[in-house]
Structure prediction request, 738 residues.
Amino acid sequence: MMKQKQRTAKFLTAIIAFLLIFSNIDLAIAGETSTESIPQTPKEPIVVNGDNVEYFQEKKMVVGSGNISIKYKDIELTCDKITVYLDTREAIAEGNVKVTQKGAYFTGERMNYNFDTRKGTVLTGHFASNPFYGRAEQLDKVENKDTYKLERGYVTTCDLDNPHYRLQARHVEIYLNDKVVAKHLVLYIRNVPVMYFPYYVQYLKQTKGYVTVMAGKKKEWGYYVLGSYRYHLNQAMKGDAMLDYRTKDGLGLAGGVNNYHDFGKMGKGAFKVYYTKENGRGDDNDHPGEIERRYRYQLRHYWDMGEGTDTVALLEFNKLSDADVIKDYFYNEYEELGNDPDNYLTFITSKPEYTSEFLMRARFNKFQTVVERLPEYKININNMRLFQNIPLYYTGAASGVYLRKLLPADGTVQKATEVGRFDANNKISYTMQFFRTLNVAPFVGTEDTYYSRTLGGETNRIRTVFNAGVETSVKFYKIFDVATNFLGIDINKLRHIITPTANYYYTHQPAIGPEKLTQFDEIDAVDKQSYIAFGFENRLQTKRMSGGQLKSVDLATLLITSDYSFRLKKDNATIYKQRFENLDLQLELIPYDWLYSVSKLSYNTKNSAVQTASIDLDAAITNKWSVGARYDYEKEESGISNLLTADMMYKINDKWRIRAYETISLFKKSVLEQEYTIYRDLHCFVAEMTLRVVPHNDEAGLWFVMRMKAFPQTPIGLKQTYSRPRFGQAVSHTGFTD
Prediction:
């Protein structure tokens, strides 16, 4: 009897398939185990799988029940029961409905969906689109777009059924892999309303949140609160609106905007403005009660003018109220870029044969020392072979510029030096190779420079400089057939490469010495010289498995460089003194994937002493331990800087981590800075509690910060701003002086 029913079912399925093919109906139906679609029709067929699927010819309708599954293009729909209308290609799904598209999914008890228009509605549903989760009374799939609309629901990054927090809104739009837009949004912590936003946008491809609040205490500011709100006017305009408050006398409310624009083919950039008021600063201020307005304006723009031109344009404009405003209010930016921003407009053209640049540089802040270029045009001709059968090459450079050096204003008098200058540099080189490993390239060149004025008041002078030299290098290597895992170092053969270089450079006595010229840049500093630049590189390599195949990796690299200088008597080539200049060494070690170390040393041969030295070490020993350490030594006229910095992180378990950080002055035998942090994983948040002590500045603080896992750059809590040394950076970037 059972076999008879199965034969009958197969027969009916065949008859239905035959009717569908010849009636241009593009729905494929399946029984308990069928997964085949019907190959026909100009439209993509709809495949229905389920425990029980029935076709009603007169009504042109298919009804299925039990483990229903439909895959259509990039959408997969599962449910307990479904009804599909063949004429309209509409479907009604009921019971445990789940729609999955591009990693996002939506669930509910009932859904209406049209396979042609790709529009659908889910009633009382849940959704997940990483990193967001949520619920709504109604979920709508928008026609022909990867867009979903939620009515009277909430979104959160917490995946619990009862989330720790939620953003509840009347209307939410989700653009898959792009952004989430909400209107009339209320932030709830558990069931307590905390904050209201009339409009909120979160782009899924960025990790920074839209509201940032930082509070704390600082010696220069007193107690403070720093807040910012990220806005998106449209695809071309977005940014951060800032509102800050500081309690110290003379301060108060301050604010600004960091606006980022993207005009497509017309380029992209940023406009930043910040404004505050404060009483007179410093002990030498004659009017301590006088209100001082402090501000910064910045405009930056980059424009790629198209493939046909191979030209890019860059614009940067900075207007500051004083020399310290960036240092006082944007210390991280000051550390990275300094306190001396530039003002320029340039057009750079890059061709295979040459690179040219048109530059305008001007001063807009009177407290700066600036060499204005009004304007400058320069061109660099790339290495060009002159003859096909002869390895003779030409390189050249030329520039024309009107220079004006402006010093900081001294009362009402402003000092300036103005010079017109044209420079042409030409070089001919010849390359040779001996024994397949020795490369020799002699060269000769001239540099002619026109000056409209010299320091002595002479006008229309031409300086001619002759230079020559030879560049040599040789490469040796040997392969050792070694395969071992000694001490866990994975070695599959060893290759030792030795590359010594020796380059000789000679510059004849210029017709006009640098002491007779205003020093604008390196062109004016050209002087007689004769030296050999030595270099010696040792590299040790092995092969390790990567991407299913063995690839070469560096285990160790040692680089030694030094210049051997010949001192010449003035106006002739007689050598009267010769010696090595600074000796520089760099050693880079990467024995394991988790361990990296680089050491640098500069030895001053004139003083017979080490000038600078540093050692960097970064290690992630296990998934629980990570350690970073840096040692810095620098000898200057003002004294010796001798710093040791250490940063250690330990993961106790999945919930708790601890971190310790210290900076120590070995020369003074004192601690410059200490930090101890405890991290607690709160499912969708990470809580941080940090104790920071700066003994030499009598500062101590304890602060608490909450960070969303989905958007780790969004801190909320109490924190004091500061600048921590980063491993691999120079000592001057630490923010400390010894």
